[in-house]
C-alpha cells in the first residue's frame, strides 16, 4: 500500500511540469517503518476530499487507501491555531528526513484542510511547491496575488516567504514538495 501510494505520487509529480522543474524525483528513497498516528481528519479526507481532476484521481485514491496507516502530524498546538483547526487538519511526511520513505534530497508531504479553515501566516526556510490533488483553497503569500487553486494547480513559496491559506465551501488535499535548506524544519507561525 505504501509502495502504491509512492508510485501514484511519483506519477503525479511526473505529470506536472512545474513539479518536475521544482525538484527531480528523489533517487535515495528508502522505506522505513513508522508507527501510524491517527487524527480526526483521516475520515474527512477519505469521505470528503473535494473534487479531484481526471489526472489527480489515482493519487487521491492511493492516498485515501493508505491514510489510516500513516503517521499524521499537527506541528501546531491548540494554543496556536485552536482545537477546531486541529480537528479538521493534518499532514504526513511521505518522504523526507523523517518520512515514511527516507530522503535527504526532498521532502514530500500530504496535507489536508477541511472546509472553512483559516491557516494562519507561517514561513519556513525550505522552498515549497504546493500541488492541489483535490478540492480548492485560496492561497495568500506576501508579495503575491491571492489565488484560488483547484486540482492540478500549483503554488510556489520562496524561502521564508510568509504564506497563509483559506478554505471556504470546499476542503483541500495537497501534495507539497520542499527543496533546499531546512528540509527537517517545522513551519513556524509568522510574527
Ligand atoms: Zn509552507
Alpha carbon gyration radius = 15 Å
Could you say which structural class the secondary elements and strand pairing correspond to? Answer: alpha+beta
Largest sheet: 12 strands, mixed
Task: Show unreliable segments.
Answer: none
Textual characterization of the structure:
This protein has 191 residues and is α+β, with helices and mostly antiparallel strands. It is built from six helices and twelve strands. It has helices at 2-15, 17-22, 41-47, 57-66, 78-81, 83-86; strands at residues 30-31, 72-73, 89-96, 101-102, 107-113, 118-123, 127-141, 147-150, 154-157, 163-166, 172-179, 188-189. Helix 1 (2-15) packs antiparallel against helix 4. The longest helix is centred in the N-terminal third of the chain and has 14 residues, at 2-15. Zinc ion is lined by residues 124, 128, 157, 163, 187.
Main features:
191 residues, alpha+beta, 6 helices, binds zinc ion
How would you summarize this macromolecular structure in one to three sentences?
With about 190 residues, the protein is α+β, with helices and mostly antiparallel strands. The protein has helices at about 1-15, 15-20, 40-45, 55-65, 80, 85, and strands at about 30, 70-75, 90-95, 100, 105-115, 120-125, 125-140, 145-150, 155, 165, 170-180, 190.
